[in-house]
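Incident review: delayed structure delivery

Summary: a single-chain prediction request sat in the queue longer than the usual turnaround. Root cause was a stuck worker, restarted by the on-call engineer. No data loss occurred. The affected request and its eventual output are reproduced below so the record is complete for anyone auditing the incident later.

Affected input:
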Amino acid sequence: MDRNWPRFVQDLLDRFTGPLHFRFLLQPAMAIFFGIRDGIRDARRGKPAYFWEVIRDPAQREELLRSGLRSVLKILILAVILDAIYQIIALHWFYIGEDLLVAIALALLPYFIIRGPANRITKWRASHSHQHRYGSSR
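Output delivered after worker restart:
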C-alpha cells in the first residue's frame, strides 16, 4: 500500500478535472435533496434527528441504517457506476477501493450529514410558526 499511496492520492485528485467531473456537484446535490426530504419526513413523524438516533439507540441502529441506505441506494449505485466508467476512461483500469471511497464521499456522507439538521430545522420552524400563530406562552 505504501507505494500505491501516491498513485491513489493522484487518482483521487485527478477526478476533479477529468471526465465526468460534473458528478462531484450532481451526486452530492442529489444526496442532499434526499437527506432533506427524509429529514423533513422524520420531523413530521415526530422522530428524533437521524444521526443521533443511530448513535443513541443500538436497538434501532440496524433498521435506521438500512432505512437510510434504502433512501440513497440508487444514488450510491450511480456513484459506483460513474466512477467505474471514469476509471476505465481515464485510468484504463478499475480500482474497487477508490470506487467505493468516491461513491461513499459523494452519495452517503452528504445524505447522512444533512438528514439530521433538516429534521431539527423543520421542527424548529414548526414550533416557531406555532408560537407566532397562537402567541408566545411566556
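Verification: DSSP finds five helices and no strands in the chain.
Action items: add queue-age alerting; document worker restart procedure.
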